[in-house]
Amino acid sequence: MLTNQTTAQWRERDAAHHWHPQSDMKEVNAHGSRIITRAEGVYIHDSDGNKILDGMAGLWCVMVGYGRKEIGAAVARQMDELPYYNLFFQCSHPPATQLAEKIASLTPPGMNKIFFTGSGSESNDTALRLVRTYWAVQGKPEKTIVIGRRNGYHGSTLAGVTLGGMKAMHEQGGPLVPDITHIDQPYWYDEGGDLSPEEFGLKAARALEAEIDRVGENRVAAFIAEPIQGAGGVIIPPSTYWPEVKRILKEREILFIADEVICGFGRTGEWWGSTSFDLQPDVLCMAKGLTSGYLPMGAVAVADRVSEVMYEKAGEFTHGYTYSGHPAACAAALANIAILEGEDLVGKAKRDLAPYLKEKWGALADHPLVGDASTFGMLGKLELTPNKKTRARFAKPGRIGGWTRNRSIANGLVMRAVRDSMIISPPLSITKAEIDEMAAKALKTLDELHRHVKETGEI
Ligand SMILES: *Cc1c(COP(=O)(O)O)cnc(C)c1O
User: Fold this and answer.
1) DSSP string spanning 208-244?
2) CB–CB of 386/459 below 8 Å?
């Protein structure tokens, strides 16, 4: 595809017409985009010939790695046979049927109905309309409030933005969706103060209880949360958090929506983050790892206790997308899941890779600028700090993180910066040697950062 173009030519053409998602276009075009031309395994290649280890698996999604010919082949076969048909008006097609069956076999017990969407955002939109409808058809239409968390991420549609707790996103494009509130996040490193992680975990969980009481339990439809906040900065909750939230959910008449768009499909070392934390969601939203990003697709798994009420009482659920269960996307998802199962990538992540990552990545905590280098499953982070003891932040939030991300990419590793937290989420297909490479490249960048901080005096 016109790969004889130079980087400068691509940049110029891109700047002329392409408005990038989640981007400051003035800044993008001042620097020029990085043009990614191909990818193989855990590596991406850019138009300047650089080979970069993709420590983020794209946007958390490329679980099986790049270049899996069997996914493309399955999609091509499906395109030849039935490139599109809708699932409205009492129709179905074999790929949607097969994929719903497959997902239901993987979801936590008692979640047997699968609603297809085109993305993670659409999955969360679906969840919002679903939980409100669930209560309405039972004669409780006042139960409309959904409680999310500050700094949670649930997507970029209006419902996704509102459910999420990203301040910068709330500031644009409002007014937001009514009846959505937020509680504090279980981010001990930044917000735990003098409390122990365990004490802070309980406090953060009890914020849910307090919020339910504040707005009135009779008004609350659901609590939505990522098992581990991803885009917020790989926020691994203290060990006390989820057990306490579970206790509260059990006592209250509200539903629980697990946003597993990042945690699903093996990211945490289990098929679901909910399994890692022993949670029983009523609604489970997925996307990303469902197709490893090879085609856009999302889905919502619904617990029997919810689907039975909806099937029985809701009549037509007036919700669905033109591309719900798109046959080619279903084929991609089925081929992707076949790889995950066939190569036991989830089991290997749990037994082999996650402990190895914990050891290698965790060793970066010895670096003078790293306050925390924890991992969970195949998620990892580095909290950058000028003072490890006080867990202080650098004076200008995000500046050091941005600098570090840019150096890391120049050093051949994609790490993402969330303010001054560096995060990774590599493909599950990564090898131990590649984990070594990732940790070594991160260390090199940290040492460069150390010199940079000394030279500039930035704290
Ligand atoms: C990425 C993400 C979404 C949004 O998914 P899109 O496919 O970008 O719409 C929702 N929730 C979480 C947890 C995510 O990480």
Assistant:
1) HHHHHHHH-GGGEEEEEE-SSBSTTT-B---TTHHHH
2) yes
Give dist(CA 119, CA 367) in Å, integer: 38
Task: Report the alpha-carbon distance of residue 203 to residue 244 in Å, rounded.
Answer: 9
Confidence of residue 5 (pLDDT cuts 50, 70, 90): confident
Within this chain, do residues 201 and 330 fall inside the same structural domain, yes or no?
yes
What is the model's pLDDT at position 458? 81
Task: Answer yes or no: do 170 and 307 share one domain.
Answer: yes
CA distance 378 to 345: 11
Looking at the fold, whether 271 and 193 belong to one and the same domain comes out as: yes
Strands (E), 128-185: 145-149, 180-183
Measured distance CA(169)–CA(219) in Å, rounded: 25
**Distance of alpha carbon 257 from alpha carbon 170, whole angstroms:** 21
Is the Cβ atom of 148 under 6 angstroms away from ligand 1? no
Residues 333 and 357 reside in one and the same domain: no
259 lines ligand 1 (CB under 6 A): yes
The mean pLDDT of 347-360, rounded to a whole number, is 98
- Whether 293 and 352 map to the same domain: the answer is no
Residue matched to tokens 């409808």: 133
Ligand 1 contact, 226 CB (< 6 A): yes
As a whole number, mean pLDDT of residues 106-112 equals 98
**335 and 359 assigned to the same domain:** no
Q: What is the CATH classification number for the domain harbouring 392? A: 3.90.1150.10
Instruction: Note the pTM of the prediction, 2 decimals.
Output: 0.98
Last residue of a domain, one of 322, 342, 362: 342
pLDDT classification of 2: cutoffs 50, 70, 90: low
The residue nearest atom 13 of ligand 1, judged by CA position, is: 261
pLDDT in tens, 286-297: 999 999 999 999
Q: How far apart are CA 97 and CA 90, in angstroms?
A: 13
266, 358: one domain: no
The answer to whether the beta carbons of residues 148 and 225 sit under 8 Å apart is yes
What domain range includes position 40? 34-64+344-456
Does 58 sit in the ligand 1 pocket, CB within 6 Å? Answer: no
Residue at 14 is within a domain: no
Domain tally, the chain: 2
Both tokens assigned to 43? 């590596």
Q: Give the CATH number for residue 209.
A: 3.40.640.10
Ligand 1 atom at shortest distance from the alpha carbon of 287: 7
Nearest alpha carbon, ligand 1 atom 14: 261
pLDDT tens profile 230-273: 999 999 999 999 999 999 999 999 999 999 999 999 999 999 99
- In this structure, are 136 and 54 located in the same domain? no
Spatial distance between the Cα atoms of 328 and 84, rounded to a whole number of angstroms: 8
For residue 3, the model assigns a pLDDT of: 59
Q: Is residue 322 part of a domain?
A: yes
